[in-house]
């Protein structure tokens, strides 16, 4: 078995053993251990949340005094007292208002593990993922509080530099991570963004 396959199987097994909906949970765990951006009592919104791996991790990190809203077109299969599932398309203009209503205010953290339904045509998939990520970035202006953090997945490709430029134009600090649970062959990178430079009134 190749190393990459062994690593993938390891995180799948760990996810099953620890009750996470997907091995993606370990990507957020590693990133938070490094950057410490999801804290007890925080309000978090998780875009592209289904099936719920990141939502579960965020729920554990914020604890009973915090709250997590998961947003996805697909079902989010997490039922926890500090979690609300919002079944909506991120491109629906009503999403920001719904998120603010459920959180009862702005978010401390925005998470985005969002991805399109993969077609197998890389140029199309990467373009669509970039468009969805930029949509979440736009929503940050409406839902993320001053001094807050965001954590984005990005499919690396032709438009990646444009997205990185948008991150840097929007946030005071932008850092990149390739979590161990992310496959070596995968084009995905993750960006921790801190401190919005501007926010909607």
CATH class: Alpha Beta
Quote the average pLDDT: 88
Widest sheet: strand ordering: 3-2-1-4-5-7-6
Per CATH, the superfamily is Vaccinia Virus protein VP39
End-to-end Cα distance: 54 Å
Instruction: Please write the string of helix (H) and strand (E) elements.
Output: HHEHEEHEHEHEE
Give the number of helices.
6
User: Would you identify the regions where 5 or more consecutive residues have pLDDT less than 50?
Assistant: none
- What would the principal axes of the Cα set say about the shape? globular
Strand fraction: 15-25%
Q: Predict the CATH topology.
A: Rossmann fold
Helical content stands at 25-40%
Overall description:
By secondary structure, the protein is an alpha/beta fold. It has a single domain (3-196), classed as Rossmann fold (3-Layer(aba) Sandwich). It contains six helices and seven strands, in the order H-H-E-H-E-E-H-E-H-E-H-E-E. The protein has a seven-stranded mixed β-sheet with strand order 3-2-1-4-5-7-6, with helices on both faces. Helix 5 runs parallel beside helix 6. The protein is globular, with a radius of gyration of 16 Å. The N and C termini lie far apart (54 Å).
Outline:
With 201 residues, this protein is α/β, with parallel strands linked by helices. The protein has helices spanning 3-18, 25-35, 53-62, 95-103, 122-143, 160-170, and strands at 43-47, 67-72, 83-87, 107-112, 144-155, 171-177, 188-196. The protein has a single domain (3-196), classed as Rossmann fold.
């Amino acid at each position: 078995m190749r190393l990459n396959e062994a690593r993938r199987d390891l995180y799948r097994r760990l996810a099953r053993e620890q009750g996470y909906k997907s091995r993606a949970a370990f990507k957020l765990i590693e990133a938070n251990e490094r950057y410490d951006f999801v804290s007890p009592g925080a309000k978090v919104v998780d875009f592209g949340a289904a099936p719920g791996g990141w939502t579960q991790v965020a729920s554990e990190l914020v604890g009973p005094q915090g709250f997590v809203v998961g947003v996805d077109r697909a079902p989010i299969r997490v039922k926890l007292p500090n979690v609300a599932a919002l079944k909506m398309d991120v491109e629906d203009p009503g999403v920001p208002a719904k998120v603010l209503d459920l959180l009862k205010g702005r978010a401390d953290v925005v998470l985005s593990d969002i991805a399109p339904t993969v077609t197998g045509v890389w140029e199309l998939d990467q373009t669509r993922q970039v468009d969805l990520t930029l949509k979440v970035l736009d929503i940050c202006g409406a839902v993320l509080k001053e001094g807050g953090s965001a954590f984005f997945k990005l499919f690396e490709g032709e438009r990646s530099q444009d997205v990185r430029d948008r991150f840097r134009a929007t946030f005071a600090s932008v850092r990149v991570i390739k979590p161990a649970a992310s496959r070596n062959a995968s084009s995905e990178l993750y960006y921790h963004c801190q401190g919005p430079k501007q926010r909607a009134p």
